Amino acid sequence: MSAYSFLRPGLFCLDPEQAHNLALGSMDRAHALGLLSPFVPKPVLDPYSLCGLPLRNRVGLAAGLDKDGKHIDALAALGFGFLEIGTVTPLPQPGNPKPRMFRLSQADAIINRMGFNNDGVDACVARVKASQYWQSGGIIGLNIGKNATTPIERAADDYLIALQKVYAISAYITVNISSPNTKNLRDLQGEVMLRSLLSAIQTTRTALSDKYGMRKPLFLKIAPDLNQADIRLIADLLLEFEMDAVIATNTTIERDSVAHLEHGNEAGGLSGAPVRDLSNAVIQALKQHLGERIPIIGVGGILSGADAQEKIRSGASLVQVYSGLIYKGPELVQECALALAKGA
Predict the structure, then answer these.
(1) Which of 132, 141, 136 is nearest to 86 (CA)?
(2) Dist CA 214 CA 216 (whole Å)
(3) Which CATH code for domain 39-342?
(4) Which of 51, 98, 279, 311 is the most exposed place for a label (fewest CB within 10 A)?
(5) Could you confirm whether 178 is annotated as catalytic?
(6) Quick one: CA torsion of 25, 270, 4, 140, rounded to 10 degrees?
(7) How many Å apart are CA 184 and CA 177, to the nearest integer?
(8) Res. 89 pLDDT band, cuts 50 70 90
(9) Residue 64 phi/psi, 5° resolution?
(10) pLDDT at 58 over 90
(11) What is the arithmetic mean of pLDDT over 248-264?
């Protein structure tokens, strides 16, 4: 029995957002006192390079768990190959009204409608720079989005502000256009808006590359709720605008598999086991269109090493986890990393 298996029942008695904050705060304190390592499996060393980034292994932390970079060092101690922080927006914002996170334990799932609650990009950048993990060369990606009050027609302005703010300190930058919890954000996945956004980002990235003397990888994070035509269009635009990788996928708005459960019809994005097949289908379709030209990072429904291997077989090069950590605990990181080290 793992330590987390004893702690989980108590955490699951709390409101999900309260439990989230308590668990991360406790991890921080334990790490600062040197008490975390005895309860965490040994990190798996399975070196892998993606977009020139030297990763310790192929399992990363998905964006959303540490929106503000407040818990970087404790999370790094869990054995991830890389961390993705955010989503951060140019200005601080409180997110959507509470309650805004719901467990669907029977389905190993979570529904959230957090709404990019964060302290703003400047605060996050300062925390990343202060972390020991970043200072020692750990791979940290920053996930950027737009403020809720910014009209969708001006979304590019927010992404460009955030891109400029995080460029110098990020190992890579993820452009998040797929959260269902910011009004109209997913409209950016349409051809006209996405072409305009990626064009502006490409131009700004070129200028920043010249300024800093380094070209930082840019990733795009997309939704699982896309048809084949949508996926083909996005694949074409990824190539046209020289994006470096695609993250598939964010949470889903589908409810067919959980509508009968308590909280199953809450508004927001559904993550965990129910999104697994949707995510894998998008990965497979992307792989068909992209081949080896642009790598895919698979995320969604990973609750075991076998699930991680399935992402790789579907066409992903790396995986990220979030909801699986809530249900399975830190041991999931080692389990997935070992599974991928053995091959898919």
Answers:
(1) 141
(2) 6
(3) 3.20.20.70
(4) 98
(5) no
(6) -50
(7) 10
(8) very high
(9) 110, -35
(10) yes
(11) 97
